[in-house]
Amino acid sequence: MSRMPALLLPDTAAPFAPRSSPTVVLNTKVDPWLTATLKRVNRIKRSLNSVPQHMKCLTDTLSQPSAIWNLCTLMVPKAPTSQLDKHDNALVEAFTRFELLHIQAYVVHVDLVLSHEVAFKLTKDTISDLCEYHKEVYLIDQRDSTWPWTEKETQVKKLHDQFVQAANKFVYRTNANALEGLEDDGAGELLEGRSEDVKNQVLGLFYPLLPPPPRIVDVVRPAAQMLPSSPANWWNPAPVPSNAQPPPVESWKILSSTIEDCPPVSSSQAFPTNWGPLGGLEMPNVTCSPGPQYSQPPATMSMSIPQLPLPSMVAQQCGSGFGGGFGWDRYQDYATTM
Question: Does the predicted model carry a pTM greater than 0.70?
Answer without folding.
Answer: no
